[in-house]
Write a structure and sequence with these properties.
heterodimer; A: seven-stranded parallel sheet; five-stranded mixed β-barrel; B: alpha/beta; Peroxisomal Thiolase, Chain A, domain 1; 14 helices; 20% strand
Chain lengths: 411, 391
């Protein structure tokens, strides 16, 4: 059984911080199909379109019929652990300081044998549920999990390397004035964060929900204005070394296309809060996050950013706002690469219209703030990279993947 | 489609066994080791570079060169050129290709050489870029290298057939005994079963003495006609039969047998030899489980019974089942691809009566087996040869 994690003691400021290392990250281009699946928490392997053979490791032709590069498809994730070993010496610096490490051979119900990381609660001969996780190099890794949830399952040392579990970590929610911000503060507190810093611009101004926000255990209100570089810098100087998770809940939704408004005032505000806000946040907190990627049980682990799903494909009804969100999406890819040396993930949580004032006139389905917060915490616990919350976000994703040009016309 | 009959190797011999003593770490590159092996061959056979018209090389560390670059490096102008990147199967495969070239008149004198360098950190670099599947699907999983891959195969073999660590230990202990009589072995300390059992775990159930030590070194031999070998006054052995088979039993979920099984009847049939006729056996011993697997798959006992087989026999060069008579890679060291030549070159010495203190008495027929290339989860290459002494 997994030994439950113990809440880490206060860090000795005189001790050297262990620097983050990455496990081996080189992969063939074909194998990156696994990363695409892992980013969304799906279990996909190549399945030959012609002879239906399920294939692993990834290949450039089907070994059953030579059909070229079989596509990645969702496949049954059950299997049986045939053999397990505990590696005690490794040639790789990342693994060397994490020894011992369990790996095993799993015979998958769908056919192939998969060499995988093995959860501590599984024994040889056991049935397993196979998953694809993103490891600290940002690459997909097969991870064998118990079929049924076990006590303290998420605390498994190897699994926690691949996830961003909030337990015993310290989070910063950037805007506590929004419903989404308040829901995130609550969800992170419930998920085991030891502190949830909640940013509020001009804290002397009261706001709806303030009382209940202050009553959430472990919440600490801090002054933060994402439109002000001094504010982000000051807060980072104060708490930057003890923030492990950042959830950016800053919002500025305004309807209308590009020509619907005169001038750039509103567009500038959108960009200032959303795009430049993300940049200010990343510049102030990013270097410390990346530096602290291997800093013990409460190492820095992720930035979560909410994105309007029309970042993928512009919806002219919210044309200017969609464009801002597209800028944020593009920035997220840069930040993902910049954070990777620290093993810190950048999680995009895509959503459609929310149950908030600025989407008031739109018909359902709409996403509730609590649902969004739940999805964000779930993504952290599972170590995902791209999450699509609600029917509209998933529908837009599917249409976009199928045919981006068609989606442009449909919108 | 009917299978065509394999042809005999009559009239073709392997001659002049050469071992360049291994070093744990060496500042020299693979080219230096290959050069020393060529020099040793030329001294034994009184050959100038121009007399060598066939060249077969096996090495992991000769990059960026391949065999062709080496021709210029060593002043060779061969009409038969081969690069055999098959790890532990390199020796037998190099031999059988060279033998066919000589038999067909494509070459008169083939120099077969395997050599690898070992610098500090070469092992890690070889592992991380060993194969595409290793890069994509093995190395990122704890980076345990072959120790971890063979640990999984060993675990499964133990579960499946009831073999124990003591059974593997017997193989290792006997080989160390053999190595103590072989001057070039890097491991020179006696090993007891107790030492074996108490060694530190590397990747359970693999412990320290189950692992080979990476080192630098070279092995080599010549392939030519019997007539030519006699003219040059070379010690030589006859080639009775050979087999190779790759990626056999690809649907086995985990490896417990190798490709020898597929072609075993041909191996013994062409040679007109039975397992009981064999005087010494050289298995590829990168891990003892693989030696047990070969003892089964080469027909000395039924599948799953090798553990009982080794319990009842003396595996030293003095014993009733002389096995890995110079100590094998487990006691000599693994000089990369030269590890795939080690058993073959040792068997040649034994059959020529050149073995020295570890000489097997009256050795007439030897079986040499090769196994190599953990591409993903299993060794893909397998090969075997039956050799006989000249008269």
């Amino acid at each position: 059984m997994t030994e439950p994690l113990v809440r880490p003691k206060r860090k000795d400021p005189l001790r050297r911080t262990r620097l983050p290392l990455s496990p081996p990250g080189a992969r063939s281009r074909t194998a990156l199909g696994l990363a695409a699946a892992a980013a969304q928490g799906r279990f996909m392997l190549q399945v030959c379109g012609q002879c239906a053979k399920t294939i692993y490791p990834p290949r450039d032709a089907c070994p059953g019929c030579f059909a070229p590069t079989p596509p990645f498809c969702d496949v049954p994730d059950g299997g049986r652990l045939l053999a397990v070993t505990t590696i005690r010496t490794s040639t790789d610096a990342y693994y060397r300081e994490r020894m011992p490490w369990r790996v095993g051979t799993v015979q998958m119900d769908c056919g192939p044998s998969v060499v995988a990381h093995v959860h501590g609660d599984i024994a040889e001969g056991d049935r397993v549920t196979m998953s694809l996780k993103l490891d600290r190099s940002g690459q997909a890794a097969a991870f064998a999990l118990p079929v049924k949830e076990t006590p303290a399952m998420a605390d498994d040392k190897q699994l926690r390397e691949m996830t961003c579990d909030p337990k015993f970590r310290r989070a910063l929610v950037t805007d506590g004035r929004t419903a989404v911000g308040q829901a995130c503060a609550k969800a992170l507190s419930e998920a085991g964060c030891t502190i949830v810093f909640v940013g509020v611009a001009d804290p002397w101004k009261p706001f709806p929900g303030e009382d209940s926000l202050r009553r959430i255990p472990n919440v600490e209100i801090v002054p933060l204005d994402l439109t002000n570089s001094e504010s982000t810098g000051d807060l980072a100087a104060d708490i930057g070394g003890r923030v492990d998770i950042i959830v950016n809940t800053a919002e500025h939704v305004r309807p209308g296309g590009i020509m619907a408004r005169k001038g750039l005032v509103v567009a500038r505000e959108e960009m200032d809060i959303r795009y430049f806000g993300l940049m200010r946040l990343a510049q102030a907190f990013g270097p410390a996050l990346r530096f602290r990627g291997a800093d013990g049980v409460n190492s820095a682990t992720a930035i979560v950013n909410f994105l309007f799903v029309h970042a993928l494909a512009n919806w002219p009804e919210f044309g200017a706002y969609s464009a801002t969100e597209a800028a944020c999406l593009s920035a997220s890819h840069s930040l993902r690469a910049e954070l990777r040396p620290g093993g810190v993930k950048f999680i995009n949580v895509f959503h459609g219209p929310l149950e908030t004032d600025w989407f008031q006139e739109l018909p359902p389905p709409k996403v509730a703030a609590t649902q969004l917060a739940k999805s964000a915490v779930d993504a952290l616990k599972r170590g995902l990279e791209d999450v699509f919350v609600g029917d509209i976000a998933q529908d837009i994703r599917d249409r976009f993947l199928a045919n981006p040009k068609a989606l442009e016309r449909e919108l | 489609m009917s299978k065509r009959q394999r042809q005999s190797y009559k009239g073709v011999v392997a001659a002049a066994p050469v071992t360049i003593p291994y070093e744990r770490f060496s500042i020299h590159g693979a080219h230096w080791w290959i050069g020393r092996a060529l020099r040793a061959l030329s001294e034994q056979a009184h050959l100038k570079p121009a007399d060598i018209d066939g060249f077969s090389v096996s090495s992991f560390t000769v990059g960026p060169d391949t065999a062709i670059g080496l021709t210029q490096h060593f002043g060779l102008s061969p009409r038969f050129l081969d690069h055999v990147p098959l790890g532990g199967a390199s020796g037998v495969v190099g031999l059988r290709r060279a033998a066919r070239a000589v038999q067909a008149g494509d070459a008169d004198m083939v120099a077969c050489v395997a050599a690898d360098a070992n610098h500090v950190d070469s092992f890690r670099r070889t592992l991380s870029t060993f194969s595409r599947f290793a890069q994509d699907a093995v190395y990122p999983y704890g980076s345990g290298g072959p120790n971890a891959s063979f640990a999984l195969i060993t675990r499964d073999y133990m579960n499946r057939f009831g073999a124990t660590r003591e059974d593997f230990g017997r193989v290792c202990v006997a080989q160390r005994d053999n190595a103590l009589a072989f001057p070039h072995a890097l491991m020179k300390k006696k090993l007891t079963l107790e030492d074996y059992m108490n060694a530190r775990a590397i990747s359970d159930p693999i412990h320290l003495f189950d692992c080979v030590m990476p080192c630098a070194g070279a092995e080599a031999f010549l392939v030519c006609t019997e007539e030519r070998a006699r003219d040059l006054g070379l010690p030589f052995v006859r080639i009775l039969s050979t087999i190779e088979r790759h990626n056999a039993f690809m649907d086995d979920p985990i490896q417990y047998r190798g490709g020898w099984v597929v072609d075993l009847d041909d191996l013994y049939g062409l040679a007109d030899v039975k397992p009981a006729d064999i005087d010494l056996v050289q298995t590829y011993d990168d891990y003892p489980v693989i030696s047990l697997m070969q003892i089964e798959d080469l027909g000395f006992c039924a599948k799953g019974e090798a553990a009982a087989f080794v319990r009842e026999r003396d595996l030293t060069f003095r014993g009733d089942f002389p096995h890995n008579t110079s100590g094998g890679q487990l006691s000599i060291g693994q000089a990369g691809a030269a590890g795939g030549y080690l058993g073959l070159v040792e068997a040649m010495r034994q059959l020529c009566g050149l073995a020295g203190a570890n000489q097997v008495k009256d050795a007439k027929v030897a079986l040499i087996s090769g196994f190599g290339m953990i591409n993903y989860d299993r060794g893909l290459a397998s090969a075997a040869a039956l050799l006989a002494r000249a008269s």
